[in-house]
User: Fold these one by one.
Assistant:
Number 1:
Amino acid sequence: MANPLFDTLFGKHDGNDAVFLHLPDGRTITYAAFLKMTAQYAGLLCALGLKPGDRLAVQVAKSPQALAVYAACAQAGIVFLPLNTAYTADEVSYFVENSGAGVLLCDPAKAAALEPVAVACGAVLETLSGEDSGTFRDKAAEMPSAFHTVARSGEDLAAFLYTSGTTGRSKGAMLTQNNLLSNAQVLVEEWRFTSEDVLLHALPIFHTHGLFVASNITLLAGGQMIFLPNFQLDEVIAQLPKATTMMGVPTFYTRLLGDSGFTKDLVQHMRLFVSGSAPLLAETHVQFENRTGQRILERYGMTETNMNTSNPYEGERRAGTVGFALPGVEVKITDSKTGETLPQGEIGEIEVRGPNVFKGYWQMPEKTAEELREDGFFITGDLGQVDADGYISIVGRNKDLIISGGYNIYPKEIELLLDEAENVLESAVIGVPHPDFGECVVGILVAQGDTAPDLEAIGASLGTVLARFKQPKRLIVLPELPRNTMGKVQKKALRDQFADLFSV
Ligand code: MLC
Ligand code: AMP
């Protein structure tokens, strides 16, 4: 096959007049129209000087156009690098610089803030909005509506997705065409996706869940998506009657359960609800079943690996577990210190191997070697356990990571900023339980000398450099941080102390 990712997901729909996307205003986009837009975008990416293997950094609002940029990268053999729309210019600057992206595509509203970033990194700046305007859109309209797909192999890189690191520096996870394709193929089978499916899509498309899991599966099956710009509770409830399946982070499900309009009748026709990216409380699973009569299917994945495990489509979907290893994926539970496989039932590090596992971190061979073993097993940093029936549960994390509403936040990145703040001696950033986001960020500060830190000023200054979702929902000053005999900060003690901060 000339270009496995493009041909399998997109190219095969050429000339297909069936609907691919439904928009909230009632408009629809057919596969054929989507592919025409894709071809024009692919032509433009080449005209802008991007060659196969080059990176395109993209920070644009979710829209059919934004999805077509992903498809265009696949068609032209360019590495797609999507960025969270909440990132500040400071944050974007790191990704463009680190990846060496040749073009930065952003919303017109952000062009002024990102122009200096593009100039400093030697990248071309183009704009594209969800309302189908911008320099990129205008130039693409002049391009031919057919594009000769660039030949690529399954081992060629398709995307870079950045994940934060324990040192505070984000790492670009390099994903190949095969990583993405193999996972989509397995999931279509496992979750029984067909061209009859209409997926309610309210996730962002700059992360694995909304981009690869939801969109790739729909494309592979030839189904349709109700493509919402984000998760708005009323809109989701209004659209559910038209859908057959939905994917979400646990916050989607707790918000739905908090609304009396979310009833059994509303979702009787639904075939499947999938949850992932963060732990779904067993309590939410049970409440959902009590309300709707349906059991959410929970699965477990990561940026570096796509999906690893899933509860069964047929058979028991067990609350509080993430099911079994997917076909072709090996999962083992190991001793964090020795790497030896532990006996069934013991808690240890989850390691995974398979065609889904990434190729390493961009230009970070040491980081790659720390996490990706020579034999192909990836050390996830999650702690798991397998029960007597083989169901895997995630019982904790061996990495200092907060997952808030499905977004990952690495405390170190925020601590480095807090430590620099005026009248702050040191800081510790922790995740505490939150009724809406599952977990949320809290910053603990110790004052330098006798002057209390100005919490409002610190919050405001974080706001200029950090995406909103990373900013602590609360800053608290303590006389000192709890430490063990080795001098290491005891975050668990802090988490226990503030466990009820947001309880309702
Ligand atoms: C928004 N805010 C958040 C937040 N999202 N704060 C913490 N955590 C979050 N996740 C901020 C807003 O900026 C706002 O700030 C305030 O919190 C309340 O916002 P909101 O309007 O209630 O939030 P909303 O816009 O509705 O977004 C919440 C959400 C969204 C849950 C719908 O975060 C979301 O779509 N999450 C999905 C993330 C995802 O796709 N993860 C997949 C990663 S892939 P203020 O103070 O200005 O009001 C992966 C692999 C795998 O992990 O296995 O799938
Ligand atoms: P990311 O780096 O954004 O891809 O996030 C991956 C992390 O999300 C994993 O390492 C897990 O810690 C977490 N995660 C994903 N799915 C689940 C799940 N179903 N239950 C618990 N944690 C999950």
Note: The radius of gyration is 23 Å.
Number 2:
Amino acid sequence: MDSLLDRLASFLEGLPVPAWRAFERIGSTNDEALRWAEAGAADWSLVLAEEQTAGRGRHGRKWHTPPGAALAVSLILRPRPAERRWPARLTALAALALYQVLRNMAPTLPAGIKWPNDVLINGKKVAGVLVETLWEADFPQAFVVGMGVNVRKASCPPLHEQAFPATTLEDEMPAPPGRGPLLRAWLEAMIAWRERLADPAFLTAWQEALLWREALLEVESGDQTLIGRWLALEEDGRLRLQTLDGHIHLLPFGEVRLRALASDS
Ligand code: ATP
Ligand code: BTN
């Protein structure tokens, strides 16, 4: 198998990644990154694996990562003031960076971000982002930004594991990128956008990349299900939704599951 690990150093050359740990197989790159952050890893340290046996999505849901077919990567970021203030923007940062990289490679690709943490192509999930925090008392010591991208066909989870339709870059792009160049391009975009995380331009770019802005949405939030329309994105990443009875709801980032009832994409 063509291992990404053998050539990782060349794909990271010249980037401000001070150190990395790369594994043929691991439980979860996010778990490794959290442990490493606790042991003092520097800003932009990176963990990557060819296969995850306990890859995680939100709420402990399983993230399928078979060997050699996906990008499974976690970055350790030491908090900056804007990131402490708006941690949700780090999820957006990773998703937006990937979205822009894919659109640069294929400008007409029907891609977008499904708020809050997934990248879709043709309405199917191709990537997910999971940001976790290492706390010391009430202070975040590090953020771990984990991203999984389905690159080759073999990375697609079996149908019975898809709570939402899934796809891969190989299925959706005539010339899908290799995992190494994709990783590098994503990191470059992350580095550039991180500098602008607090700018209004960041919120605008994020908003423009979001799918379903015109759609009727079904939202599961805790034990309630709401049906309404997207009105706006708040500065802190919450979604402003107007339900059919006219009420405005601010949906907390992170605890919500979204479906489009009548989609615009
Ligand atoms: P949903 O994706 O159902 O809207 P969600 O965004 O909260 O909900 P996550 O926790 O973000 O879901 O992602 C985990 C879910 O993604 C799993 O329950 C599974 O259905 C799906 N999944 C797992 N592995 C992959 C993968 N490699 N590609 C696409 N989807 C996956
Ligand atoms: C989601 O859609 O819920 C997010 C999925 C995040 C998966 C990535 S793969 C690399 C990192 N390690 C994990 O265990 N999860 C993230």
Note: The mean pLDDT is 95.
Number 3:
Amino acid sequence: MSHPSVEDIKIKSRGLRGTLLEGLADPVTGSLSFEDQRLVKFHGTYQQDDRDIRDERRRQKLEPAHQFMIRVRAPGGVFTPEQWLKLDAIATTWANHSLRITTRQTFQFHGVIKRELKATMQAINAAALDTISACGDVNRNVLAASNPLQSRLHAEVHEWAQRLSLEFLPKTRAYYEIWLDQEKLADSGEEEDPVYGKVYLPRKFKMAVAVPPTNDVDLFANDFGLIAVVDADGGLAGFNVAIGGGMGASHGDPKTYPRLGNVIGFVAPDQVLAIAAAAVTVQRDHGDRVERKHARFKYTIDEHGLDYIVAQMEERAGFRLQPARPFHFDHNGDRFGWVEGEDGRWHLTLSLPTGRIADRPGAPHLTGMREIANVLRGGAPGQEFRVTANQNLIIAGVPAGERERIDALVRTHALDQENRAPTALARASMACVALPTCALAMAEAERYLPDLNAKLQPLLEKHGLADAPILLRISGCPNGCSRPYLGEIALVGKAPGRYNLMLGADHRGQRLNTLHRENITEAQILEELEPLFARYAAERGQGEGFGDFLHRAGVVALPPYPTHTQVLVEPAGKNAALGEAA
Ligand code: SRM
Ligand code: SF4
């Protein structure tokens, strides 16, 4: 039987309601109907099954072990200690006893079964959080610089992430009716939605806000990005706007490719919502509604031409963009350890292996974080947890007097990378979830990263590179959830135990890497990398990154698809510091 298209499902869904209420109440199966599985994503949850036991259940003639992943909407990724404790309770009551920090600054729960899905959604709501639009053909979780140092600026860009997220929430009340048992109003199923209409967007849409010189949100991997420009007094002058970034690709399909965003101009703060709406609606009206793999904004831009798309956006926004202001990014990673904020409070960034917070033998991270949240609860505003787009965690706004207590808890719960001092490589590496929950995974990622790191580390040490913060990213398939095409070294899954080895991105999120070797095993990956480490150790220039070296040495060239690295870049040093906009 052929299934209806996602476009048809959306149109007929009565504002994303479908038959979700009936499907959730059906005790006979742990699954939802095909159509409802598509719709439930817009409510922030995916139906999955445990792939580790899929074959065994098939042999036993049982239906797959259906379970749900739930993604929280948390623009800018900030949580109070009280919210943390509630999320922890949800993880241990209904999910698989872990909190998974995602590459878009929020948490996912895994392993929730259908009959407990509603209670879990209600518990998330009771933590003053929701999951609306965390998935689906809508604007997704908005990223904002985690930027621990500038408290005022952080608060401001965080506020922008919130505003953008709220502005582009669907208008349907389906979420409140289905999950929170709120009463149906007269217009149930007929709510007007000026942005999304009845068809929503052709595909997901992603936004981010960055604060130079740190590109910790990988701004150019987003459909729409804002780069903060700071005026002479350290206030926000406005934003450079970038459009058309995206990572997803499919093996063997040249019509799909990762692409970096183009900087198209500058807007004042009061123009931000209009230009964002213009980008979203241009994509809504011009994006591909037939081929979902080809339906992202990046392809719309390449199909119609950047100038045409910008002209369309300006017409809809009702103003011309000003010329882009110079900016400079010096890295896209996180800064680890304690730093003092401008308000005299302290921020501690922890590197957590692959962002999965769980209790493991010798590393009771979930318990440790619970104890830290208990220390910080009831504190002054700004005493909070920030999750980063690099899957790390910042304990922010800590009064000087509490530092020692936090340090002791970090130590006793081995909270900075297992039981050993975190290596530079481990801190700079990232993996997507992949197996066993991701339906699209072709190879391991999250579960494999610690093993791979343990094999690469001795090679780095052998060549005196133990402290080299090489950016390593693994994805279990080419969809690119760990943004692997921005890794100096990246592994992209092809089949169990086999990966494409990609090399040569920078560490600023401004140059994509290139396919170096296709479909190779771990042994071949190590064999390829070791001589490159040896050359890098012997020939690198002062402060030269691994990816930059590989380009200079001619080991890799620019990739064949559009990379758009010709963004306006200010030479480091001159206006690199905040507060010195040109
Ligand atoms: Fe992703 C699909 C996990 C960030 C590109 N992504 C999926 C699904 C839902 C698989 C599915 O469709 O059945 C994965 C669920 C795995 C699981 O079991 O939890 C999944 N994506 C993730 C997360 C959890 C990875 C992580 O380890 O952190 C990230 C959640 C982000 C969030 O909180 O919202 C995640 N995904 C990304 C990113 C990175 C980013 O946004 O900065 C990308 C690349 C950027 C982009 O969108 O171009 C990304 N995910 C995709 C794609 C490819 C989209 C495309 O343009 O073709 C898919 C496949 C799809 O949508 O059909 C996908
Ligand atoms: Fe799944 Fe592929 Fe995304 Fe990894 S990159 S989480 S394997 S869709």
Note: The pocket of iron/sulfur cluster (ligand 2) is lined by residues 432-434, 438, 440-441, 445, 475-477, 479-481 (CB under 6 Å).
Number 4:
Amino acid sequence: MPQSDAIWTDKDYVENLRSKFIVFDGPDGSGKSTQRERFGERLEALGGEVVHCKDPGGTDFGNMIRSILLDHDLTNMDVRCETFLFMASRAQLVGEKVKPALEAGKTVLCDRFISSTCAYQVAAGYDMKRVLELGQYAVEDVWPDLTLILDVPIELGFERTGRQPKHAGKNRSRHAGQGMLLDDVQTDAMEARPLDFHRKVRETMRTLPETYPRKVMIVDGSGDADAVHEEVWQVVARAFQ
Ligand code: TMP
């Protein structure tokens, strides 16, 4: 995009994104980590101070919880337990990293957040309203200023990661659990869930602009990384107008 069409100058990005918390979310393989990193690099090159984080995880305790959630068979884990564990990791992340960084005027860029619980655990049978209530307990006033959903067809996401759900979904009786011990750590516990589960995740994410209590913008994540980055860069400026 020519500079004359830009909503913000480079300086505006640095000034206006101080103490802002931006989440990059989307289905598996949506490119959220790549886009978070590229956004952060560009902002830092302009002089912005950026803190990156990842949910679940991002702290020592959060990484232990992440390992419980993603490296094990969760077949017998109640979806409420699963939801609480995601929230527990997030509570630690907010207290230890996000809040102090925002208070210091930094821009916090995070992979996933409560928006992911709204999509994945709701797809696994948990109630959306409850997720949002629990989210409020977990993060108190530290909600994202903006959540970007990188929207991609599920099949493209899995093609990009080179991983596959373990079941096609047709013959499964318990769609909420993985139903097996993970024999391949490359495919995590959530990715191992059936395609139907992931389709529901995507559909729920697409409804978040109406249901989530903070601003959510959908970005088409199916193009190449450069094109998606340019779109993200402009969408962020539009979101804070
Ligand atoms: P990722 O770090 O590669 O995105 O993997 C995290 C996985 O955990 C991903 O499949 C999405 C899933 N997840 C949930 O099910 N609920 C959540 O609240 C979060 C943050 C992630």
Note: Residues 28, 55-56, 70, 86, 111-112, 116-117, 120-121, 188, 190-191 surround thymidine-5'-phosphate (CB under 6 Å).
